[in-house]
Each structure stands twice: as C-alpha cells, then as structure tokens.
Amino acid sequence: MRPSSGSALRFLVLGPVVFANLVPIYMVFVNAFKTLRDIKADPLSLPLDRLTLANMASVVANEQLVSAFVNTMVYVVGSVTGAVVVGSMFAYVIARQRTRIFRLMYMLVLVGLLIPPVITALPLVQILARLHLIGSMPALIIIAVGGSLPFTMFIYASFIHTIPVELDESAQIDGANRFTTFWRVIFPLLRPVTASVIIFLALGAFNDLLGPLLFLGASKDKAVLTTLMFANLGKYQSNYDQLFALIWVVMVPVIVFFVAMQRQFISGLTQGTLK
Description:
Blueprint: H1 5-31, H2 36-41, H3 54-60, H4 63-96, H5 100-110, H6 117-130, H7 137-160, H8 166-173, H9 178-189, H10 191-206, H11 210-215, H12 225-230, H13 240-274
C-alpha cells in the first residue's frame, strides 16, 4: 500500500524535528560513559571498547550531589505547593466574581504571562538585597510562586468557570462559608487540572537555572542540580565527562516523575477539553 501525500508530508516535517530532539539525548547517554579525551575528539562516536563507568561513579559518590538534590526537592515542592494553593484560591475568587474590578484584576494578572522573567530579575534582586534575603530558599520559593501565579490562575479560572455555581449555593445553604466551600466542594473537582499544573510547574522548577543562580548565589551548600551542572562549565576548562554523567543522573527523576504522572496529565487535558 503506497503512503498518501499527507503521510509523506508529515514524515518530511516531523522527521527532522524528531531527529533534532533525539541527537542531544543520544549525546547525553553516550558521552556519560566516555572519557574526556573521547568526548572532545568526537562527541557523536560510540567507542565500545573504551566505555567506562568512572564518570557515573564519581558523580554518584559526590556528596554535593545529595545536598543539591535535597535543595532541588525543597524548591520544587515548596514552589509547586504554594502556586497550587494561592493560584487556585485566587482563581476561585476571580471566577465567581463578575464585577468589573475583579475582571480588571484578572486581566492585570494575565499581563504577567507577557513579561519575560529576565526583565524582572534585576528589580527582584535589588528588593531582596535591601531585605537581606539574598541566598534564602524561602525567598526563592516566594518569587517562584509569584512568577507562576499568572499561568496557574489562568488554568484554574478557565476550569472553575465550567463548574456550576449551584454547587456553591448548595454548600452555603448547608452552612459552609466561602473558604470551606472551596476546599470541600470545588477543589476536589479540580483534581485533573491540578495534576496538569503540578507537572508543568514541577518540571519548570526542576529545570530552573536563572532563579537559583540569581537568588541563591554560588554557595555550594545552597546549590541545586541545575547550578551544580552549571558549575562544571568554565571559561577555560569544562568537565564534560562529569557534566554528561551528572545530566544523565538528573534526567532519571524527571523521566520517572513524568511517566508516573502521565496518566493524570492526559486525564486533565482530556477533561479540560470535554468541559
């Protein structure tokens, strides 16, 4: 059976895209088991007779890796939890209030989606410096929550608009206040979209380099995984063998997390579409 012209066109378009995404992954997995000399000679080669586990052993035995992993988990869990709690509550108020003031507030928050994070980096550094909060993990988490608020509120508000207001009225008739109504009635219905939000924000925080680099500094005890990888890149010398091995180790939790949350992520997108 001859392929149709549409299939051939899709192959011509998607083929180079898939190839461009697979090449970096191939380089990471291959160069993690090669010596620095082989990496510099040919990063795409696969010398089966000279592959080594020394790079992986050196990275795993590094005590700083454990500290960076713990700091990363604190940053990810703290920023995602704060964004979900604050963003969902804010979105609920915005979605249930139809006045012009709340609509204006909603539009002002959404403007944050159009502002690149680099533009706000310098003012935030100056504010934190005056408050003596540079190098503080709570300050980094607060900034991450504030930065993700436009996206989080937009996703939650769009979903809450589809939930009937009669559920709120029924809960209030039973004596529940607005706070109880949200957490006992509305928030359980947001489970699919919450899973999608958690995946997006967790992967974003896990891969964040600019925030930890600016607000935590270069201190080794406060380093996260991304800044630890960045430390292997220097102006005059780069430890590519250690870097590729570290990237390989860091990729494992991300892949496991995405596979574990994949069903919830697809369910959230599907239910959001059906709504």
